[in-house]
Design goal:
Length: about 290
């Protein structure tokens, strides 16, 4: 059967309209798929936290009851009496110290590898990433003996070793950032009379700020979540949340206390992740 086109409507316009409608449907389907995937991932990550949240306020929860029989804050009080506040402060200080040391060192190492390659670059990269390849237990034992003989304070030793473990992550993130970095912006600023400090503050720092935040976040996680280095090198002088969680989980009948300490351990990383995600969104009209 022949199809008669309306007068004044060329075939090319029909083709463009059909293509546009197909592209619109494709984008809508992709948006729905992304939304469904994000929702499924959110449920996957949030669902295990539900029992922890219930245990925090469960003074009594016996099998086979689906919900706690008695509600209260006894678990919170018990966790605080076990040193939860001290462990939180210790973990926070350790994470911030590792992040403050490993992030600038990673920036310097990554910039050197990106813009000043040499015949020793491969060896330098291998040394930087060696902490990830070597068995952690054996390495920490050897470093512990070395630090004791050098009479390094245990807390300082923990920070130094964790900084070495965080350095591969910060270097890798910043190496990717510098790989896409255009030195032409810095050279043009110097040509216009900017000093090195002005170039760093007004040109280089804004360009690498997102990668810098990611590197600092990863370094903070290394210090915040560590157990092995803190236990072996710290020797109990530094109390952190992972140590308290492991101590409570080693006993029986401490489910509520473990839940409280676990949520304390999850709170700062999740808060930082949400903050980074909210501040990292592009503003409307911002240039890519």
């Amino acid at each position: 059967m022949a199809v008669t086109l309306p007068p004044g409507l060329p075939r090319e316009a029909l083709r463009k309209d059909a293509a546009r409608n197909g592209l619109t449907r494709s984008r809508a389907a992709g948006r729905i798929l992304r939304t469904a995937t994000a929702a499924a991932l959110a449920v996957w990550f949030v669902l295990p936290l539900v029992p922890l949240g219930l245990w925090v306020f469960a003074d009594r929860w016996s099998y086979p009851a689906p919900l706690p029989q008695h509600w209260g804050l006894e678990n919170v009080d018990s966790a605080l009496s076990r040193g939860a506040a001290t462990g939180f402060a210790g973990s926070l200080a350790l994470g911030l110290a590792v992040s403050a040391l490993a992030t600038p060192l990673g920036v310097l190492a990554a910039r050197s590898l990106a813009f000043h390659p040499s015949r020793w670059s491969a060896l330098f990269s291998a040394l930087l990433f060696a902490p990830l390849a070597l068995p952690a237990f054996v390495t920490v034992f050897g470093l512990n003996v070395l630090l004791v003989r050098l009479q390094v304070p245990s807390s300082a030793g923990v920070v130094l070793v964790l900084t070495a473990y965080a350095l591969p992550y910060t270097t890798y993130v910043m190496r990717l950032a510098f790989g896409a970095h255009d030195l032409g912006f810095e050279e043009e600023a110097c040509t216009l009379g900017a000093t090195r400090g002005q170039v760093f503050l007004r040109v280089q720092l804004p360009l690498i700020a997102p990668a810098l935040a990611r590197a600092a976040f990863l370094a903070f996680l290394v210090g915040w979540s560590d157990y092995l280095v803190t236990v072996l090198i710290g020797g109990g002088s530094l109390v952190t949340v992972p140590l308290l969680v492991a101590s409570a989980a080693a006993g029986t009948g401490n489910d509520g206390i473990v839940a409280v300490l676990s949520l304390i351990a999850l709170a700062p990383p999740l808060a930082l992740l949400l903050f980074a995600g909210m501040t990292g969104r592009r503003r409307p009209g911002a240039r890519p």
